[in-house]
Amino acid sequence: MLAWAGRQNTKISIELCSADAIRDLNRTYRGIDAATDVLTFPSGMEDQADWPLGDIAICAEVASAQAKLRRVSFAQECAFLTIHGILHLLGYDDESPEELRRMMAATREVLRRMNIELEEDWFSIYRQEEVSLEQR
To answer: Does pTM top 0.85 for this prediction?
Structure first.
């Protein structure tokens, strides 16, 4: 995926964390006092090809709950969240409907290039904010 984006020599750190840990990160860095599925932290050196691109934090509890709702494996959900996080580090966003469409198109292209075939409803629970942890 990074080679496709022209960043094959870069590094990314990915950490699985608890709901409490990601809630603390979300509160500290985004002002949102809630757990979420994935957070990204760009290095600030995105324009330098050989520097780390950034960090990705994936909440294992939220990923597990979303995997059950999507009827996919935990590994598939974590793969999706990793792709989502990397796209954020590459400059994609999903705040507006147009940005979300662009990010979803990029996500589908990455999955296609990786020969991953998934049901369309894979994308139905795109933002964790739409499904609270309590509903899981």
So the answer is: no
